[in-house]
C-alpha cells in the first residue's frame, strides 16, 4: 500500500501542527455520508495507535487506520488554493464517481465489501 504527499501538502501539515503547538501527523479517514456514499475526514494525530499505518514524504506524515487502507491505496494527497478557499485534496484511484456537490463519492466495486 502506498500513499504519497506532495510538497505543498507536507508544508501545510507542518504549518498546522506548528500552529496547534502539538501533533505528529495528519490523520485521514473515510466515513459513510452524502448522496454518493463516502467522504473523507481530516484531523491531526497527537499519538499513533496500534492499528495506524504511517506514510511520509518531505518530512511530514499522514496516518491512516489499517481498516481504511484499501480505500486509500495509491492515493496522492495535495494541498491546493483556489481563490479564497484552500484544502487538502486526495487524488484517489479508488474513487468511481463523485456527487454533483463534490462532498461525497462512490468507490470501485472491488473495495466496497
Automatic annotation (TrEMBL):
<dbReference type="InterPro" id="IPR035903">
    <property type="entry name" value="HesB-like_dom_sf"/>
</dbReference>
<dbReference type="GO" id="GO:0051537">
    <property type="term" value="F:2 iron, 2 sulfur cluster binding"/>
</dbReference>
<dbReference type="GO" id="GO:0005506">
    <property type="term" value="F:iron ion binding"/>
</dbReference>
<dbReference type="InterPro" id="IPR017870">
    <property type="entry name" value="FeS_cluster_insertion_CS"/>
</dbReference>
<dbReference type="GO" id="GO:0051539">
    <property type="term" value="F:4 iron, 4 sulfur cluster binding"/>
</dbReference>
<dbReference type="InterPro" id="IPR000361">
    <property type="entry name" value="ATAP_core_dom"/>
</dbReference>
<dbReference type="InterPro" id="IPR016092">
    <property type="entry name" value="ATAP"/>
</dbReference>
<feature type="domain" description="Core">
    <location>
        <begin position="1"/>
        <end position="103"/>
    </location>
</feature>
<protein>
    <submittedName>
        <fullName>Iron-sulfur cluster assembly protein</fullName>
    </submittedName>
</protein>
<dbReference type="GO" id="GO:0016226">
    <property type="term" value="P:iron-sulfur cluster assembly"/>
</dbReference>
<dbReference type="Pfam" id="PF01521">
    <property type="entry name" value="Fe-S_biosyn"/>
</dbReference>
Amino acid at each position: 500500500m502506498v500513499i504519497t504527499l506532495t510538497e505543498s501538502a507536507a508544508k501545510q501539515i507542518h504549518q498546522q501542527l506548528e500552529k496547534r503547538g502539538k501533533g505528529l501527523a495528519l490523520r485521514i479517514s473515510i466515513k459513510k455520508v452524502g448522496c454518493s456514499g463516502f467522504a473523507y475526514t481530516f484531523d491531526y494525530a497527537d499519538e499513533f495507535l496500534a492499528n495506524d499505518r504511517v506514510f511520509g514524504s518531505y518530512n511530514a506524515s499522514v496516518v491512516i487506520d489499517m481498516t481504511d487502507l484499501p480505500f486509500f491505496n495509491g492515493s496522492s494527497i495535495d494541498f491546493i488554493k483556489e481563490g479564497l478557499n484552500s484544502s487538502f485534496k486526495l487524488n484517489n484511484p479508488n474513487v468511481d464517481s463523485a456527487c454533483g456537490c463534490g462532498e461525497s463519492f462512490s468507490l470501485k466495486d472491488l473495495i466496497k465489501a
